Amino acid sequence: MTHAQEMQVSSRDRAGQTGAPATGPVRRRWRVLLLSVAAGFLLTVVWSAEFVDRTIGGNIARTLLGHDPEAPISGVVAGIVFAFTSGLAGTFTACNIAAFGTVAPLLGTVGSPWGRVVQALKPLGPLSLGMVTVSALYGVLVGFVGTSMPQFSEAESVPGVLSGRSVQSMVAFGVVGLSMFWLGLSALGFVRDPFARLRRRFPHAQTVFMGVLIGSFLIGRPYPLFRQLFRDAAESGNPLYGAAAFTLQSVGNIAIMAIVFVALSAAAGARVQRWMAKPGRVAVLTAVALIVAGAFTFLYWDVRLLARREIIPWYPIAPWAA
After folding, report:
1. Which helix (H) or strand (E) holds 256?
2. 149 within 8 A of 138, measured Cβ to Cβ
3. Which candidate, 306, 309, 307, 301, places its Cα nearest to that of 159?
4. Which of 23, 25, 70, 99 could staple 11 via S-S, CB 3.0–4.6 A?
5. Distance (Å, rounded) from C-alpha 230 to C-alpha 152?
6. 220-235 burial, b if ≥16 CB within 10 A, otherwise e?
7. Would you give the DSSP letter of residue 104?
8. Cα 154 to Cα 163, 164, 227, 228, distances in angstroms
9. How far, in Å, CA of 7 to CA of 13, rounded?
10. CA–CA separation, 199 vs 289, rounded Å?
11. DSSP secondary-structure letter at 25?
């Protein structure tokens, strides 16, 4: 039996044990891989941080807060409100867009709309568990020692030099991107499923891990509104405030994603269910979401960042994204 066949048998066995949908064999998996990587790469070429962070995110935050979002945060209550609001505003930033790669692996095919909504809500619990754990712990850390961390720095970037803040972003998002990419490869059967054994005892282990990845976005996040929150939490010296603010920031990050996820599950009709029931299609959908998000995250935050700091000679960037 080939390795790919073993992966497929393992997937079917796992479906019987945990209730997860069987993935079945994946046809033309090399084509799926190459097209997904190409899509992630092209997204890095056309992505404009200025437009997404300031035009979209800034206007959303300004509308929800009713004032300039870059104004100083005055007090704990204002900080809590700012945390959730800036999290919502940052939904579509390059830091957070990879979170949408977690939606496809969780889609189900239960018959009735209400049944699909209930099924959709179940994995949001384990996803939130992983996310909140990392966000809260990082908030506690920032409350204790944040003013001495690289993310606290306001120093301008210098060509040819990687600042501590840039290194922290590269490490955090590099690990997140490569982790998602590896999970995508396992969905296609190129590598072994890293959660195969653990899932037998903890069926939602991979979903919790996806939440950990989303929570880890805060560790390297350079989004201006989050850095404003970071500095406020660090200067407060209050780890409880840091934990609450960072948790709400992450909740805001996935709120729209969760609504979209539940809506997609409810709207999935009989035709979509029949399409997803065919062997291999759930695996392809899962793999494409994870590989595109993983490739984008790694290339954007590690390779393209090196080009922007003039450490490597060139990376293709669209004129409007330069």
Report:
1. helix 239-267
2. no
3. 309
4. 23
5. 7
6. bbbbbbbbbbbbbbbe
7. G
8. 11, 11, 9, 10
9. 10
10. 21
11. -
Handedness of CA 284, 285, 287, 293 (dihedral sign): positive
CB 100 within 8 A of CB 256: no
Summarize pLDDT for 269-306 with one digit per residue, the tens: 556 666 766 767 778 888 888 999 999 999 999 999 99
Quote the CA–CA distance of 89 and 206 in Å, as a whole number: 27
**Measured distance CA(5)–CA(259) in Å, rounded:** 36
- Spatial distance between the Cα atoms of 311 and 76, rounded to a whole number of angstroms: 40
H/E segment holding residue 219? helix 205-220
Helix (H) or strand (E) holding 61: helix 58-65
Number of alpha carbons in the 13 Å side-chain half-sphere of residue 100: 19
pLDDT at position 181 is 95
Question: CA-to-CA distance for 180 and 196, rounded, in angstroms?
Answer: 16
Question: Tokens standing for 141?
Answer: 């850390």
Q: Scan for tokens 């390795």, then name that residue.
A: 3
User: Which residues does 275 contact at the CB level (< 8 Å), separation at least 6?
Assistant: 281
